[in-house]
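QA checklist item 7 of 12: single-chain prediction sanity check.
[x] sequence parsed
[x] length recorded as 314
[x] structure emitted
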Amino acid sequence: MSAVLEQVFQVGFLAAIIRIGTPLAFATLGEMFSERAGVLNLGIEGIMLLAAMAGFTGAYFSGSLWIGVLAAIAVGALMGALHALFTVVLGLSQHVCGIGVTLFASGLAYFLYRLVFGQQSVPPSIKGFEPVPIPVLSDIPILGPAVFNQFTLVYMAILAVPIAAFILYRTPWGLSVRMVGENPRAADSAGVSVVSTRFQAVVLGGSLMGLAGAFLVMAQFNAFTFGVVSGRGWVAIALVVFGRWDPWRSAGAALLFAFVDALQLRLQAAGLGHIPYEAFLMLPFVLTIVAMAFMSRNAVAPSALLKPFRREER
């Protein structure tokens, strides 16, 4: 027990929680915007993977990490637009289209990676982002080294939460997003373009998912592998429900999952040899399922979620 506590009560543990939670925060905010507009995006897993591959490829050949980030965001937005085309413009099943986008994007990522890099015995890698300490704040005991000595993308994720809350609750566009997600007929009667607003929200969500993929390959692993996403997209969908479609709560849910994920890594490092390591690996996902089972009972989704809008139907 003392070995476990020794692993947990360290600055590095808090820093690891923030790093693990960063891609989840980006992806969860992206899914939240899409769902608040009434569109479930089950393509998130594939979007993150394809964006990660595009970002890694861009950074690898250009030598610029920011070009890679922009490439990942662009690919995420493009795949979001594809999903919006099917679900918003054509009004097709959001479940089927989302799964289709995941399968298409995943297969395309594998194909393009093999096409560009081939089958190498040693996978290519890049020099990823370096921690950027913030003067004065990084000198604060415990909190400083953990929070204010991080990658630039981590700071972007921290800022993204209040910005997302401000956009959603304090801007006309955010009001339009909430209206089309709750009552698209009323929004249409008020002069809000339901199709345009939903399309924009899904594209914005795809961009944030692309940013999550960029973090994985340019800050967390510094390489692209076929398992780089490892179910984080599916987890983000659950975290949106756990966070009740609110930016602050969704970010808190991402940190909670990151805490459990970081904890299982520390538990493995603590040398608890009598417990199979597979039990530690599945711990975050099991707790997510349990949390979902309890939280989904009282969670109230946007009223128009999964419902296509057709203006001619009354």
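[x] summary fact logged: The domain at 2-119+148-295 is CATH 1.10.3470 (ABC transporter involved in vitamin B12 uptake, BtuC).
[ ] second reviewer sign-off
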